[in-house]
Amino acid sequence: MITSPSNPKVALLRSLHTPKGRAGAGAFLVEGPHVIGAAIEAGIAPFLLLYEPATLARTEEGRTLLDVLTQISETGQMEALEVNMRALAHACDTQTPQGIAGAVALADVVPERLRARRRGRFRPLVLVLDEVADPGNLGTILRSALAADVDEVLLTSGSVDPYSPKVVRAASGAHFHLPIVSQQSWEQIAQRLSGAPKTAQILLAEAHAARPYYDVDLTQRTALIIGNEAHGPSAQARRLATERVSIPMWNGVESLNAAIAASILLFEAARQQRGKRASE
Q1: What is the pLDDT of residue 77?
Q2: Closest CA relative to residue 40, chosen from 179, 178, 173, 139
Q3: Low-confidence ranges of the chain (pLDDT < 50)
Q4: Are residues 37 and 147 in the same domain?
Q5: CA distance 216 to 225
């Protein structure tokens, strides 16, 4: 059992709290039985897991994961090591660890690999995030994007790192299925949207736009841009957009949280797509 916070395995997970550490290790931190269980279920096994059995055994999800760890560790697919809570707390980003933390290789979630696994149907919606800065917002948006069957997510270079621990926790497993392309310039985004399949429309979500979001055909190839929480969309986003859409609101409410607004628009697209498939 690992008991020291200075143990090299603990130090590795600790290093994944920072962008520099993630880049150096080629990995990102995963915490808690839900996110780690989602990775394993998706066929993406963390290459290192540190766990404290007593804490895991307190929940049904944790007990299930303990059984899975026993089976997988015997195959040699991953290194799973017991630790005490002092060492685990040092490795984790959360203040109250849920009994397990690990490292997933960034190479296992590159967009090309995830796209290959998702082949099978046309997904018309691309999500562009314009300097979304809050980790909780980004994680929630990624979770909604997966639930709404978005094709891929493009993040501008001013956006928060999608592999930071807080984003990974909030996304609740979306990283293991949804292609995410980060650190994109607007030139790269424009090139990507003009490639095959060519984007028919580029919608910018804006609070005071005249056209309501439900009045747009979201079954054709569409890019949806969500702007920064505090400053709204950038000048580059405005130039690239072919249409602006809003979410009509009552009682003097001017705007919504970025994650809520994005989710409303994404699920309208999903609703329209289901309706089209049902009528075909």
Answers
A1: 72
A2: 173
A3: none
A4: no
A5: 14
Nearest Cα to 50, choosing from 4, 108, 103? 103
Residue 274 token pair: 């289901």
| Per-residue pLDDT reduced to its tens digit, 119-162 | 888 999 999 999 999 999 999 999 999 999 999 999 999 999 99
pLDDT score recorded for residue 37: 95
Q: Are residues 80 and 131 in the same domain?
A: no
Q: What pLDDT was estimated at residue 71? A: 81
Pair 71, 194 in one domain: no
Give the pLDDT score at 196: 87
Instruction: Give the Cα separation of 167 and 139 in Å (integer).
Output: 4
pLDDT at 72: 75
Q: Are residues 170 and 199 in the same domain?
A: yes
Residue 133 tokens, joined:
């800065």
pTM of the predicted model over 0.85: yes
Provide the H-helix boundaries in the chain. 8-15, 19-25, 32-41, 53-56, 60-73, 85-91, 111-117, 135-147, 165-171, 186-194, 235-240, 258-279
Predicted pLDDT at 69: 87
Measured N-to-C along each axis, helices 60-73 and 32-41 cross at an angle, to the nearest 10 degrees, of: 50
Two structure tokens written together for 18: 């920072």
Q: Going edge to edge, which strands form the sheet with 201-205?
A: 180-184, 152-156, 125-129, 222-226, 201-205, 243-246, 211-212
How many whole angstroms separate alpha carbon 147 and alpha carbon 143?
6
Tokens representing 64 are 């299930």
Stated as kind and residue range, the H or E segment containing 243 is: strand 243-246
Closest by alpha carbon to 45, among 11, 68, 17? Answer: 68
